[in-house]
DNA sequence: TCAACTATTCATGAAGTCTTGAAACGTTGA
DNA sequence: TCAACGTTTCAAGACTTCATGAATAGTTGA
């Protein structure tokens, strides 16, 4: 990963609402959520959410897909993994103590917390199958 | 780790010069480097470097120690590990694909690259043994 | 005590980001 | 065709961060 992309991802993550947004979408899983649902859940105005969503999508941390009149957002796991890998490997050179600090197990996170609230579209509305530009 | 601390750390990391600074100090190891040496290595003005150093130290990513007329800076491995752990565990809930993306081995980083250029003080100048406020 | 050295702080202006509300755009169903 | 809906875009102002050079402060050795 280039440094410029890493900087874009770190800047995108350095904001409370956007961190909440990532957490929500990680919990939701690959199905993702439509923008309006995210706005209601996080209590954000439509325009503010749209601003945050596009910041995260431009940074490669989210994917979006237009479905009917909704736009469904989901985390881009590869993008999230890449920025963490950048910090761990490129930046910290796999420094043994850094690695030790962040690779401890977390038995306190129950498995069901990881993929809750899967989003289901109303019947009859299929996905378009391609990622939005 | 609280979200406010994570945000401070992410903001501090979202800057090219500061990422270079972390990389340099990770490579240098626990001995650290004095501010002037860092400024010369990275080609930064003294005031600009001081600004970046205090941003990183306030975010808990560096430690400093006054030694003779120098201030020696070194990475805070626990702090660096904590922000990576925050992203991986608290934010991404150990999402399997995210974890898979960032835990691949990196045999391309030679071991000697991790702790090069250890800094040695001129003889007779001992450390004060306490971290600067 | 004084000059040299190391590092930090301060003031200034430039540049960038954030928030808000209004307007615009495309989709859907009547 | 038209109104309702979901979402994005835009403009303006508030706020924050950044870069620069000058001033300040502490340490050392003569």
Automatic annotation (TrEMBL), chains A, B:
Q: Which residue range or ranges hold the HTH arsR-type domain?
A: 1-95
Going by the UniProt record, its keywords in alphabetical order are: DNA-binding, Transcription, Transcription regulation
- What this protein is called in its record is Transcriptional regulator
Q: Which Pfam families match?
A: HTH_20 (PF12840)
MF terms in GO: DNA binding; DNA-binding transcription factor activity
Segments of this protein annotated with the region Disordered:
113-133
Does the entry feature the keyword Transcription regulation, yes or no?
yes
Species this protein is from: Fuscovulum blasticum DSM 2131
